[in-house]
Amino acid sequence: MTSSNHRFSDAERRGLYRAIHERRDVRSQFLHDEIPPDVLARLLKAAHHAPSVGFMQPWDFIVIESRSVREAVLSTFEEENQKAAERFEGERKAHYRSLKLQGILESPLNLCITCDRSRGGPHVLGRNSIVDTDLFSTCLAVQNLWLAARAEGIGVGWVSILDQEQLSAALNLPEHVYSLAYLCLGYVSEFLDQPELEAKGWRDRLPLSELVHGDRWGQPLTALKLDAL
Ligand SMILES: Cc1cc2c(cc1C)N(C[C@H](O)[C@H](O)[C@H](O)COP(=O)(O)O)c1[nH]c(=O)[nH]c(=O)c1N2
């Protein structure tokens, strides 16, 4: 028995890392083609196999096809996006305004992944000290879906420039259910090879070597050649 016994084959590993590195947040490149039901089912199953605190599985998936719900969501986006633009000055404000930050109507499918904060009762194993672990778990479901979608050739865009109360009302969510991720999904004309915000000069990827510390915050870890990766 060697330590690499449980390792995936080279091709499988390449596939996994490819999904990770080529996953993109998509806003503009959506095609009209519908996502077939069996493909959507695979994506939802991938999300449902995420880890969760105490195996709480706090997520629900709201599949939004109706135009009227999307229009309600778009209207809260527009209001919040206007407010967001006001936080910047001068050129940065103009730059912000030029960015496309949602594909709510253009994408063939919108999906809201929610977190039911009451699921599993008042004492969920592992959640007593850090209550937000239910939210963290739901984020992992989003990421599973996002990576599986990339492998299926489907783009996903996360829209968070939304008023949560208005979103909850549009989706008729009960009080204890938190609307964690509003996602736009669809096949795409292309996946950009870098984040759109980077391509458009908004923000660069940080060097990994500056983010990895030894023992304590601020101590460099010299043994790893991270930037050569
Ligand atoms: C929690 C959260 C919330 C948002 C995002 C992401 C996440 C994780 N992102 C996408 C974000 O801008 C994007 O992930 C980064 O720019 C990196 O690009 P790639 O995802 O690697 O393409 C995002 N994008 C956008 O156009 N409008 C939005 O409201 C949001 N909101």
UniProtKB/TrEMBL annotation:
Enzyme class, UniProt record, top EC level: oxidoreductase
Record field: catalytic activity: FMNH2 + O2 = dialurate + 5,6-dimethylbenzimidazole + D-erythrose 4-phosphate + H(+)
Pfam families membership: Nitroreductase
GO MF annotations, alphabetized: 5,6-dimethylbenzimidazole synthase activity; nucleotide binding
InterPro entries to which the protein is assigned, alphabetical: BluB (IPR012825), Nitroreductase (IPR029479), Nitroreductase-like (IPR000415), Nitroreductase/BluB (IPR050627)
GO BP: cobalamin biosynthetic process
EC number: 1.13.11.79
UniProt KW keywords: Flavoprotein, FMN, NAD, NADP, Nucleotide-binding, Oxidoreductase
Gene3D superfamilies, per the entry: NADH Oxidase
Record-annotated Nitroreductase domain positions: 20-187
Family under the similarity heading: Belongs to the BluB family.
Subunit structure: Homooctamer.
Protein name stated in the entry: 5,6-dimethylbenzimidazole synthase
Source organism of this protein record: Vreelandella sulfidaeris
